[in-house]
């Protein structure tokens, strides 16, 4: 502010004076303000002479006092001028300060106003933005509503169109309905006319039937008289036949020659013993019956007399057969075949028999298994197999289970497995569960005969997966 650091502001303008060290202090009151300032002391007027000035009466002293006064006046004038300068200076400074204050005040006020204006503008902008948002939302809502309105009007239009179509269809149906009703009426009328004509026809037919019945009755009477003639003819024929029979009765000697019955063989051993030593098919008679059976007799192997029970060598016969087929036999005795469980059972229950099984593999090796004692139980006991005295080259152990198993076929499950061995491995056999052998399995050709669970199996000779090439099962009385 004011550069004169010695000034002090107060509320009255009083000119007074005081003393500090070497300087004189003055105070000026100007309206509400008071100024205090210090002035330098004149160097050549010592205060001690000043205090005695008025008490002196001599002319020298007076001269000196006048000079002194003049000096003081001069000093006063200097001081007054100096004060005026100071006043001007103060006033000028004050004016500048006031101007500066005013300027600052205006500036501050303007800044505040600008700030307020900015804040107001910001708020206005914010409001404008919010307003815009609201406006956008309102526009969106309006658009959506307009769209919905449009959609509604479209669907309404569609519905109206459909209703129109339906109405048209209903009209058409009504037309058709009335047309059909008319047709029905017409048809009913026609039907009634037809019905009445049919009833007439029926009456006519009734009359015709009555007439026909009468004709039939007449014909029956005629037939009766004809059958009487036929009976007479029949009696005549019988009489002629009886006459012819009487004429053709033979003499007693000739009758004995004609009743000469052929020799009956129970098995091939019997055939062999009767002198027939050639292998082939022979007719055998089932024990205790007059039933006959064709069987192949092997008259060469091990002294001959063998009745062949089973033969396989080419796979032409299917061995996956029923219980009844295995009971009575199947196939051709001169080729692949099964002789029949019933015959073998009856035969082996009368005499002690030996069982021999001859096998051949696909590599040309032959082997056999033989049992000194063999028999089959009857059908009630499921043709159970009984074996004793094993020997042979087809395995050190018998591949037929001992003690024996019941016979099973695809339609008779008598094995010891929870499964059905016959259905699983095919063929009829004395399965155990399912056991180490099945000579009635599937016939596999060479090259396909390995890794087969359902082939012709004789485990203790060729293992479980090997299917054999040839098999022969044959029996002969143990005492042959
Ligand atoms: Ca079973």
From TrEMBL:
Coiled-coil intervals: 163-229
Domain of life the protein comes from: Eukaryota
Annotated signal peptide: 1-18
Annotated Pfam families: ANG-1, Fibrinogen_C
GO biological process, one term: blood coagulation
Gene Ontology cellular component annotations, sorted alphabetically: extracellular region
Subcellular location: Secreted
Name the record gives this protein: Fibrinogen C-terminal domain-containing protein
Species of the source: Pygocentrus nattereri
The organism's taxonomic lineage, starting at the top: Eukaryota, Metazoa, Chordata, Craniata, Vertebrata
